[in-house]
Amino acid sequence: MSSDHNVHAVNPLPPAVVALFLCIMGIELAFTLGARGLIGGPEAVGWRLLALEKYSFSPNVFNWMVQNGRWPLDYVMRFVTYPFVSGNFTQAIFVSVFLLAMGKMVAEVFGGVQMLVIFVLSGVGGALAYVLLLDPAYPLVGGFPPVYGLIGAFTWLLWRRLSLIGENQSRAFSLIAMLMGIQLVFGLLFGGTSDWVADLGGFATGFGLSFFLAPGGWSRIVSRIRRE
């Protein structure tokens, strides 16, 4: 009897997912340990606050850029830096759990680079939805909008699969409906913020990008245009 020693008990995570996870949790661990005085000296207590001031997505900063027609790199980069600065340790943990689960499934089907594109652009889409659809008083922080973009890509996969087998495609949206429902309940009970608009914007961005970034997606679109 022979055995394959190369078979993994658990499928390894795609490198792109691991890199994002290490960035988010590495930064959060630095904030947490610094706040407890374990690293960085006395200045480390304010690391999180300094990062939030410099890297969060600020509606006031965005409005200033629009009104003045100026787009300094230090301000524009906030579109892609805010997901890596969590408001607290709990937020970072939940973001990381969703990232590992959804990122793995999306990267295995779409590819690592495509998964990163969905993550980054869903963060941008979520920030734009947050500032354009609302008049928010607080900056946007944390990785939920881009993670919801990965959920959007995963939903697209389910949506396509259901269409191929002739099932009701609306079933693919049960996960996002459940998550939005949970956010609504928590918001009513504990006075939640309007971040759900950014999350929904991230979801819509990830779902829309999947038409182009899924394997063979662009070819299908071109073929459909030519037929019409």
Characterise the protein shown here.
This protein is mainly α and 228 residues long. It has a single domain (15-227), classed as Up-down Bundle (Rhomboid-like fold), CATH 1.20.1540. The protein has helices spanning 15-35, 47-55, 59-68, 73-76, 78-81, 89-110, 112-133, 144-164, 174-190, 195-213, 217-227. The chain is globular.
Q: What is the C-level CATH assignment? A: Mainly Alpha
Q: Provide the CATH architecture.
A: Up-down Bundle
Structurally, the number of domains stands at 1
Q: What sequence of helices (H) and strands (E) makes up the elements? A: HHHHHHHHHHH
Task: Classify the secondary structure makeup into a structural class.
Answer: mainly alpha
Radius of gyration: 20 Å
Can you count the helices?
11
The amount of helix comes to over 70%
Distance between the termini: 58 Å
What would the average pLDDT be, to the nearest integer? 88
Under CATH, the topology is which?
Rhomboid-like fold
CATH superfamily: Rhomboid-like
What form results from the Cα inertia axes?
globular
Largest sheet: none
Strand content: under 5%
> Based on DSSP secondary structure assignment, what is the total number of beta strands?
0
Low-pLDDT runs of 5+ residues are: none
